[in-house]
Amino acid sequence: MVESPHILVVDDDRRIRELLQSYLMENGFRVSVAGSAVAAREMRRGMIFDLMVLDIMMPGENGIALTQSLRSNNDSIPVLMLSALAEAPDRIEGLSAGSDDYLSKPFEPRELLLRIHSLLRRTPPAVEPPEEVRFGEFLFNAQRGELRKNDELIKLTTRERELLRLLTARSGNPVARNDLAQPGSDDSARSVDVQINRLRQKIESNPSNPVHLLTVRGAGYVLHTD
């Protein structure tokens, strides 16, 4: 059986999160919820979502900033923005940030459902990343967190294992430093660079001239797999 689409609802208001989750599940969707942009990023590290329903006005990183970050990182997940701001300039700002649709609060639940179905029809279903990926002489099993060079098991730290999972899940596409930082940490860009350099010591014949794990100026890092 084909699984129903998986939706991530991001809203700092717990009551709204629960109402949306209940309504969408009643209409056949799988639904996960997050109360902040930080929580949403953490959930997306471990799960694949077909669409995001995103509130704009949240403390910390708001919905506009989160959407801009996703699009700058070549993340094409469909985003349906929800906002109490209903004026034309507000809608334009939301759409300009990279959202696919914009719905003003309060809204009719049926209209939300119709807009979700419309977005999903225009978007290919999300694909789970492969369990194993190969690059050069290396084979990485994301589920087990095992890296092998030919038949030799390469010892990884917990952080190196997590970095490889993130990079292989987006194989061939740049991953921003912010998305490689540990959720809820104060990892700086410099800290991520140091961690990447340590990982290169294990997967590159010449870490100063890498062929697998490359730096993309202004975008982050990309892992090229076979």
Unreliable residue stretches = none
Round the Cα radius of gyration to an integer and report it. 19 Å
Strand-pairing-aware structural class: alpha/beta
Kindly report the spatial arrangement of strands forming the biggest sheet: 2-1-3-4-5
Q: What's the CATH topology name of the largest domain?
A: Rossmann fold
CATH architecture of the largest domain: 3-Layer(aba) Sandwich
CATH class annotation of the largest domain: Alpha Beta
**Helix/strand order, N-terminal first:** EHEHEHEHEHEEEEHHHEE
**Structurally, how many domains make up the residues?**
2
Account of the 3D structure:
With 226 residues, the protein is α/β, with parallel strands linked by helices. It has 2 domains: 6-122, 3-Layer(aba) Sandwich (Rossmann fold), CATH 3.40.50.2300; 132-223, Winged helix-like DNA-binding domain superfamily/Winged helix DNA-binding domain (Arc Repressor Mutant, subunit A, Orthogonal Bundle), CATH 1.10.10. Helices cover 38% and strands 21% of the residues. The protein has 8 helices and 11 strands. Strands 2-1-3-4-5 form a 5-stranded parallel sheet, sandwiched between helices. A 4-stranded antiparallel sheet has the order 6-7-8-9, covered by helices on one side. The model has no long low-confidence stretch (mean pLDDT 86).
